[in-house]
Amino acid sequence: MSDPSQQPPSDPYRPQDPYQPQPPVGQPPAGQQPPQPPAGPPQQPPHGQPPYGQPGYAQPGYAQPGYAQPYMSQLPPKHPRATTSMVLGIVALAGGLVCYLPILLGPVAWVMGAGAVREIDQSGGSLGGRSEANAGKIMGIVATVLLILGVLAIIAVVTIIIATDSSSGGSDFESYSILGAIR
């Protein structure tokens, strides 16, 4: 019938026995010949792409020759006021919602962030931290708008109180003074 020394061709899609030794990566299984390249002229890859394995393309996980992997030390240093303006903007917004006093830092964050963004743009890439400085500038703008609205609300409330008091006939200012209350 058939020669028992010849093994049937293995099906590449058949699951392999996990307990059998596996051939090294890139080598055909035992008893098989490596695939031969087709005869004739080499075919041109589609769309002008270089063929696989062409020099200049590294294997995944390995660096290409002549190109260094980026390190954290190769990133430009952050502008010293970039993070400061962002922190001031966060404190102005978050602290301004809890108690109104920290919102006074809003204009400081706005001015400091705008200056840092301008200096980062003028540095030509030698300074980093533009996103932090821009975030500080934007939070400073929002906090400044809230500060202005709060001040206008306080002025409006005081004006309404004074207007309603003077219309009720109480023109005696001494009744509202601290010294008048002590007497």
Task: Write down how many β-strands occur, each being a DSSP E stretch of 2 or more residues.
Answer: 0
Shape: elongated
Cα-atom Rg, whole angstroms?
38 Å
Class inferred from helices and paired strands: mainly alpha
Series of H and E elements:
HHHH
Helix content: 40-55%
- How far the N terminus sits from the C terminus, by CA atoms, comes to 129 Å
User: Main β-sheet, in a few words?
Assistant: none
Number of alpha- plus pi-helical segments: 4
Instruction: Detail the poorly predicted runs.
Output: none
Strand content: under 5%
The mean pLDDT is: 76
General description of the model:
43% of the residues lie in helices and 0% in strands. It is mainly alpha-helical and 183 residues long. The chain has a domain at 80-182. Helix 1 (80-98) runs antiparallel to helix 2 (106-122) and helix 1 packs parallel to helix 3. The longest helix has 38 residues, at 130-167.
Topology:
Blueprint: H1 80-98, H2 106-122, H3 130-167, H4 178-182
Helix pairs in contact: 1-2, 1-3, 2-3
Quick recap:
This protein is mostly helical and 183 residues long. Helix content is 43%, strand content 0%. It has a domain at 80-182.
Spell out the key features of this protein.
183 residues, mainly alpha, 4 helices, 43% helix, elongated
